[in-house]
C-alpha cells in the first residue's frame, strides 16, 4: 500500500492499531484438553469470501454490514457468498482454490445463551497460517502459526441470542515465517481444524501437568495453573482406579504443585495403559486420560520405562488418505495410524509440524511413541527475533496442548536446516526453551549436513548435536545422491555418543509402475533403495530407531512430473489411494524381524 499523503490523525490511528494488533496477538495460554470441557461446536458450513487483493480489511468485512437503504453501498454479502466446510482446508474443497494463497474470509451466525458465572472462549484447533477473529464486529485477537491451537476470550462480546463471527485466514507464505517460503508440502489454508465455544467457570483450571517424575516409575509430580480472581486454596488430583486422591496448595499466582508416590501400570506400545485422572479446584473439574511412562537416554540407547527400546517408525504427513487434503477427522487419523501399526511400527514421526489433537490421543491409545516437530524447516530467517518468537510461540502452544500425552516422546526443533552460527544460536534458544517448558521429554532435530572422514565414511558433527538428547539424521543415498549400491560400503560416524534416529531415507515410486531395480519411479527401484538402506543402517550400533520417508504419498507443489508425480511426492510406502507398494513389505519384514529380536525372552527359550 503506497502512503503518499497521510493526515496526522490517520497516522495516529495507524500507529494505535499497530500497537493493538501486537497486544492482541500475544494471546494467553490455550485451554488444554477442551474435549473434557462444556463446548458448543461451530463446525459446519461457513460463508466465505476469497480476498486476493486484501480488500476485506479496508472494506471492513468484519462488520458483516447490510445496506440499510436502497442507496447504501455495500460491496460484499457473506450470506450469498460461496460456502466452505469447517474444519477443512480450502484448497481441496474447490478446484479454483487448489493453489490459492492469500486472505480468505469466513463468516457464520450462531445463537448463544449467556449465563452468569460462566466465561466463554472461542477455541480454534488450528488455522493456517495467520488468523484474525472478530465477534459481533469487535476484534477479539489474532494468531500466527498454522498448526497449533489458540483461543480468545469472548465472554464480554457475546450477545444473549444471535451472534456473528468473522475470521480472516491468510495462508500467504512469508520470508520471516515459520515455515518460510519453501516447503515440500501443500500450503493447505483455512480453518483446518475444529472451532468451538468453550465454557469455563469464573475461576478455572487453565493448564496442568500430571506425569511420572523424571527417572522415577513410582512417583507422580506436576502442577495445576488456575485462572481467574477467586482462587480456592486447594487443587486435588484423583486417579480413581488406584484409589488415589492427593491435594496441593494453590499459591497467590494460582499455581499448585504436587509430588506423591503412585503404583501404576506403565504405558508402553505393547500395553498402552491409560488412567482416568480427575483434577478439581473450587467449582471446576477436568477429566483426562493419562498414561504414565518414563523416557530417557543412556549413552546411545533410548530407554522406555528404564529398558532399551528400538523405535520401529515411519515418517508421515498430516494428509488425509483418498481425498488428499489436510487430515482432521478421527477416520483420517485412524486410517493413517492403523497403516503404521500394520507396518509393524511402535513409533511415528509427525513431520514437519504439530498434528491435530485427536491424532496424538489416538497414538496414546494405539501404543505409538511420537516424534512431534515444529515447522522450523529448511532455511528461515535465523537472525530475525520476531521469527524466533514465532517459533517459540508454536513450541509453547504444542507443549501446552500435548504435555500430558504419554505417546509424545520427542520434541523436534527443526528439519534439515543449513549449518551457520545464527542457525545454531536460534536452535539452541529453542532447545533451552523446550527444556524449560517440559523437562520430561527428549529433544531432537532432523539433521542432514554431514562431513567426510574418508571416501565412504560420513560424519555427523553438526554443532547443534551437542545440545540435543537424540540425533536425527536425514540422508538420501540412492535417490538424491550417489548410487543405491554405494550404501554397501558407506560407514557412519557421530561426533556425539548419543542415540541416533534415522529420521529419513527413501525414494519415489508410483504405485503399479514396474521395471528393473535401476529404473527410477518404479516400485522395484524404491524397494531396492529400502533393502540397501536397511542393510547399511543395520551395521550402525548407535542407531536407536528409524522413521523412513514415508507412510503415504502426499501433495507437493514441488513435484510436477506429469503422469508420475502430478504434484504428489511419491515416496510413500502406500499410495494416496491406500495401495501398498513393494517397499512396504520390505520394511514390514525388517520390523517384524526386529520385533522378534527385541521381544523379551520367554523363560527357557
Ligand atoms: C527432505 C525433507 C522432506 C521432503 C523429502 C523429499 O529430506 O525433509 O520434507 O519431503 O526430503 O525430498 O521427499
Structure keywords:
605 residues; alpha/beta; Jelly Rolls; Immunoglobulin-like; TIM Barrel; 3 domains; eight-stranded parallel beta barrel; six-stranded antiparallel beta sheet; 8 helices; disordered N terminus; binds alpha-D-glucopyranuronic acid
Q: How much is the radius of gyration in Å?
A: 25 Å
What is the helix content? Answer: 10-25%
Beta-strand share of residues: 25-35%
Low-confidence stretches: 1-6, 12-27
Number of strands: 33
Q: Please give the CATH class of the largest domain.
A: Alpha Beta
CATH third-level topology of the largest domain: TIM Barrel
The first-to-last residue Cα distance is: 76 Å
- Supply the number of helical segments: 8
State the secondary-structure class.
alpha/beta
Q: What number is the mean pLDDT?
A: 94
CATH homologous superfamily grouping of the largest domain: Glycosidases
| Ligands, deduplicated | alpha-D-glucopyranuronic acid
Shape: globular
- CATH architecture assignment name of the largest domain: Alpha-Beta Barrel
Main beta-sheet annotation = 8 strands, parallel, barrel
| Spatial strand sequence of the major β-sheet | 21-22-23-24-25-28-30-31
Descriptive overview:
The chain has eight helices and 33 strands. The protein is α/β, with parallel strands linked by helices. The model is unreliable at 1-6 and 12-27 (pLDDT under 50). The structure holds alpha-D-glucopyranuronic acid. Alpha-D-glucopyranuronic acid (GCU) binds at residues 184, 352, 415-416, 474, 504, 549, 569, 571.
Amino acid at each position: 500500500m503506497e502512503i503518499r499523503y497521510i493526515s496526522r490523525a490517520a497516522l495516529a490511528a495507524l500507529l494505535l492499531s499497530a500497537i493493538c494488533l501486537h497486544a492482541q496477538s500475544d494471546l494467553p495460554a490455550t485451554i488444554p484438553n477442551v474435549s473434557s470441557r462444556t463446548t458448543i461446536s461451530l463446525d459446519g458450513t461457513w460463508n466465505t469470501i476469497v480476498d486476493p487483493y486484501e480488500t476485506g480489511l479496508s472494506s471492513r468485512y468484519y462488520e458483516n454490514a447490510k445496506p440499510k437503504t436502497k442507496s447504501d453501498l455495500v460491496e460484499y454479502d457473506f450470506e450469498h457468498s460461496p460456502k466452505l466446510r469447517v474444519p477443512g482446508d480450502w484448497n481441496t474443497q474447490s478446484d479454483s482454490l487448489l493453489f490459492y494463497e492469500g486472505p480468505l474470509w469466513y463468516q457464520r451466525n450462531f445463537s448463544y445463551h449467556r449465563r452468569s458465572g460462566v466465561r466463554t472462549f472461542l477455541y480454534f484447533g488450528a488455522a493456517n497460517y495467520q488468523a484474525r477473529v472478530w465477534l459481533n464486529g469487535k476484534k477479539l485477537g489474532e494468531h500466527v502459526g498454522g498448526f497449533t491451537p489458540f483461543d480468545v476470550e469472548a465472554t464480554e462480546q457475546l450477545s444473549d441470542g444471535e451472534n456473528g463471527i468473522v475470521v480472516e485466514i491468510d495462508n500467504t507464505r512469508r520470508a520471516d515465517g515459520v515455515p518460510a517460503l519453501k516447503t515440500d508440502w501443500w500450503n493447505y489454508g483455512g480453518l483446518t481444524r475444529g472451532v468451538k465455544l468453550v465454557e469455563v467457570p469464573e475461576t478455572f483450571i487453565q493448564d496442568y501437568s500430571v506425569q511420572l517424575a523424571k527417572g522415577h516409575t513410582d512417583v507422580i509430580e506436576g502442577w495445576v495453573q488456575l485462572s481467574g480472581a477467586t482462587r480456592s486454596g486447594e487443587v486435588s488430583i484423583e486417579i480413581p482406579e488406584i484409589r488415589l486422591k492427593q491435594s496441593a496448595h494453590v499459591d497467590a499466582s494460582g499455581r499448585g504443585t504436587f509430588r506423591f508416590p503412585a503404583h501404576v501400570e506403565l504405558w508402553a506400545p505393547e500395553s498402552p495403559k491409560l488412567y482416568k485422572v480427575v483434577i478439581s479446584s473450587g467449582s471446576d473439574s477436568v477429566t483426562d486420560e493419562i498414561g504414565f511412562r518414563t523416557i530417557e537416554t543412556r549413552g546411545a540407547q533410548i530407554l522406555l520405562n528404564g529398558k532399551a527400546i528400538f523405535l520401529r517408525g515411519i515418517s508421515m504427513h498430516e494428509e488425509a488418505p483418498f481425498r488428499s487434503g489436510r487430515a482432521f477427522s478421527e477416520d483420517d487419523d485412524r486410517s493413517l495410524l492403523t497403516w503404521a501399526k500394520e507396518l509393524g511400527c511402535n513409533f511415528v514421526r509427525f513431520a514437519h509440524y504439530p498434528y491435530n489433537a485427536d491424532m496424538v490421543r489416538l497414538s496414546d491409545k494405539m501404543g505409538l511413541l511420537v516424534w512431534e516437530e515444529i515447522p522450523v524447516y529448511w532455511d528461515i530467517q535465523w537472525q530475525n527475533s520476531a521469527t524466533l518468537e514465532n517459533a517459540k510461540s508454536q513450541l509453547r502452544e504444542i507443549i501446552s496442548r500435548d504435555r500430558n500425552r504419554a505417546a509424545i516422546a520427542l520434541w523436534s526443533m527443526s528439519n534439515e536446516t543449513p549449518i551457520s552460527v545464527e542457525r545454531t544460536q536460534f536452535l539452541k534458544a529453542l532447545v533451552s526453551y523446550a527444556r524449560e517448558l517440559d523437562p520430561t521429554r527428549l529433544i531432537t532435530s532432523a539433521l542432514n549436513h554431514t562431513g567426510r572422514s574418508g571416501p565412504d565414511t560420513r560424519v555427523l558433527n553438526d554443532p547443534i548435536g551437542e545440545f540435543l538428547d537424540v540425533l536425527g539424521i536425514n540422508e538420501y543415498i540412492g535417490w538424491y545422491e550417489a548410487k543405491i549400491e554405494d550404501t554397501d560400503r558407506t560407514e557412519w560416524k557421530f561426533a556425539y555418543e548419543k542415540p541416533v534416529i534415522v529420521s529419513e531415507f527413501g525414494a519415489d515410486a508410483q504405485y503399479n509402475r514396474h521395471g528393473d531395480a535401476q529404473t527410477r519411479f518404479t516400485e522395484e527401484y524404491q524397494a531396492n533403495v529400502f533393502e540397501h538402506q536397511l542393510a547399511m543402517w543395520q551395521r550402525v550400533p548407535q542407531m536407536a530407531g528409524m522413521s523412513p520417508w514415508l507412510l503415504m504419498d502426499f501433495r507437493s507443489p514441488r513435484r510436477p512430473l506429469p503422469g508420475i508425480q502430478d504434484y504428489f511426492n511419491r515416496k510413500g510406502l502406500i499410495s494416496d489411494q491406500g495401495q501398498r507398494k513393494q517397499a512396504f513389505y520390505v520394511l514390514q519384514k525388517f520390523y517384524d524381524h526386529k520385533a522378534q529380536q527385541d521381544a523379551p525372552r520367554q523363560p527357557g527359550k
